[in-house]
Amino acid sequence: MIRRMTRYLPQTTKRIIPLAALGLMLAGCSSSLLTGGVPPGSLPQAPQLVQQAAPAVTPTSREHQRILAAYNGAYEDPKAEALLNDLVAKLIAASERPDLQYRVTILNSASVNAFALPSGNLYVTRGLIALANDTSELASVLSHEMSHVIARHAEMREDEARQVALVTRVFTDLGSDPETSALALAKSKIKLATFSRAQELEADGIGIGIAARAGYDPYGAVRFLTSMGRNAELKSNAGQTHIDPRAPDFLSSHPSTPERIKNAQANARTVAQAQGERDKPSYLSGIDGMIYGEDPSEGFVRGRRFLHPRLGFTFVAPEEFTLDNTAQAVLGVREGGGQALRMDVVRVPAEQTLPDYLNSGWIENIDPKSVEETTINGLPAATATAKGDQWVFRLYAVRFGSDVYRFIFATKRMSADIDRSFREAVGTFRRMTLAESQAAKPLHIKVVSVEPGDTVERLASRMGTPDRNVERFRALNGLGPNERVNPGDQVKLVVE
User: Fold this and answer.
1) Which terminus of the chain, N or C, has fewer Cβ atoms within 10 Å?
2) Residue 162 carries which DSSP code?
3) What is the pLDDT of residue 403?
C-alpha cells in the first residue's frame, strides 16, 4: 500500500465511482492504459469512493505517469539498468528500424509484465526480470515489445482507443453476471487495450528475428515462455490469483502459452544458424540483490499478516485469506471465494468523529442503527454494516496518528461466526514495536553457486518464501519437474 494513497482517496467528492478490487488495468503488451477486464479473485462491488481529477498533461506524459502510478513507480537499480540499456542498444542496431529511439523503464512491481507505448517507451517489471535466467530470455521479451512499435501495432491500437472515453476505474461484483454493464464495459476496454492474437504472434516472430541478429539465443523466448507458464501455474495452484487487476501478468492478455511456445520454437528454428549468446553469468550478476516481491517501502505480506514498518502498523487477515498489497490498498480474498476484504487509508479531519465519518456519504446503503463507536488496541475506532444486492459488508474506521484506516469486509452470507472472524481480524490491527519494524526485512534475489551435495530440495529450503519452496525454486530458475542442479551451476534464491 503506497504512501501516495491519500492523494488517490480525497475526502471531498469530485466524482462517485463503485469501490471494489481496484480499477485501472494495464493489460500485458498494451498500447495504452485504456484497459479493463477483471480476473478471478476481484473484490465484490461495494460502497462508493471518490477520485480526484488529474492535471492536464500531454498524452505520452499522461500515460507514462499512469503507468508509474499503477506499478509503484520506477525501480532504480544501476546494475539492472545498465544491463537493460546495453541489451536494448544491441536490439535496436539489429532491428528493421535502427532509426527508432527507445526508452526502457524498470517498473517497481512484482508482477510479471512488459509492454510498449507507440512513442517507443518500453516497460518491464522487476518481477519479470527476476523470473528470467539469462540475457537471451530478457532479450526475447524486449524485442517482442519493440516489434509492436516497429509493426505499428501500438499506434494502430492507440488510434482505435481514441474513439472511446478513458475510464480510470472499473470495478465488478465477484461472481456477477458477465453481461452486467460494468463487466461489459471492462471487457470492451480490454478489447481496445490489448493486441490481437495475430499481432502478438507476429511480434513474437519479428522479435525472435531481432534477438537472433543481435547475437542472442533465439530459443530464449521458448525458455522464458515456459518459465512464465510454470510461474502462472504455481500461483494458480496455490490459490494466489493476482488480485490487482491494474497490473496483471504478461500471460493474461496474450495467446495461450502452449500456442506461443510452439510458435516460438518454429520461429527460432528458422533463424538459429549458430548458437546464440545466453550470457547467464552476466545476467545473474546484474540482478543479484534485486528486490523480490513487494517494495519494502510499501509494506509486506507474510502469509495472512501485513506489516508496514515505515508507517508502523500490522494486522492479520482472517483464516484462509490470501492478501495482495496493491498500489491503492491491501486486498484479500478467502480461498474458494465468498468473502473478501479491503484495507486503505484516508485523511479525516481531527474534529470529525469516526461514527460521523461512517455516516458522511462516502459509503452507500449503510445501516444507521449499526454504527457504533469502539476502540481497537487503544486506538479510536467505529464500525457499521452495509448491504448490497448480493453482498453484506462489515466496515471499520480506525484512527492511527493523523490518518484513518478503513477496513471493508465483504461476504455473500453474513453469520455470527463470519462477523466474529471479521471483528477478530480488525482486532489484530496495532502499532508495531521498534523491534518488529527493525526485523521486517524485504526479500531479495541472491545468486549462489551450487556446491557438491546440493540438491533442489536442499537449496529450496533456504528460500524465504512462505510455502511451496521447491516449486518456487524450480519456477524461478527455469527448472522442469525432474531437472537437477549440478555443482558449479549458478541459481537464484529468494532470501531476506
Assistant:
1) C
2) T
3) 93
Instruction: Note the pLDDT tens digit of each residue in 86-109.
Output: 999 999 999 888 888 899 999 998
The whole-angstrom separation of Cα 47 and Cα 55 is 26
- Structural domain ending residue among the three candidates 241, 274, 291: 291
Structural domain count of the chain: 3
* Contact assessment for residue 206 and residue 151, using Cβ atoms and an 8 Å cutoff: yes
Using DSSP, state whether 47 is helix, strand or coil. Answer: strand
pLDDT of residue 424: 96
How many CB atoms are closer than 10 A to CB 173?
A: 22
Looking at the fold, whether 19 and 154 belong to one and the same domain comes out as yes
Contact 172, 180 (CB under 8 A): yes
User: Which residues does residue 115 pair with via DSSP β-bridges, in sequence order?
Assistant: 123
Q: Is the pLDDT of residue 465 over 90?
A: no
- Both 309 and 162 in one domain: the answer is no
Q: Out of 91-95, 119-123, 236-240, 320-324, which region has the weakest mean confidence (pLDDT)?
A: 236-240
* pLDDT, tens digit, 9 for 90 and up, residues 283-327: 999 999 999 987 767 788 888 999 998 889 999 999 989 888 876
Nearest to 116 by CA among 227, 241, 206, 240: 206
Domain of residue 454: give its range: 442-495
User: Which one of 226, 261, 291 terminates a domain?
Assistant: 291
Contact 425, 409 (CB under 8 A): yes
- Say whether both 323 and 275 belong to one domain: no
Task: Tell me the range of 17-21, 24-28, 264-268 where mean pLDDT is highest.
Answer: 264-268
User: What's the full length of the chain, in residues?
Assistant: 496
Q: Which three cell numbers stand for residue 153?
A: 501495432
Whether 277 and 369 map to the same domain: the answer is no
Query: In which residue are the cell numbers 455473500 written?
Result: 412
- Kindly report the CATH number assigned to the domain that includes residue 465: 3.10.350.10
Domain match, 60 and 99 both: yes
Residue 216's SS3 state is strand
Report the alpha-carbon distance of residue 299 to residue 293 in Å, rounded: 11
3-state helix vs strand vs coil in the chain, percent to 5: 35, 20, 45
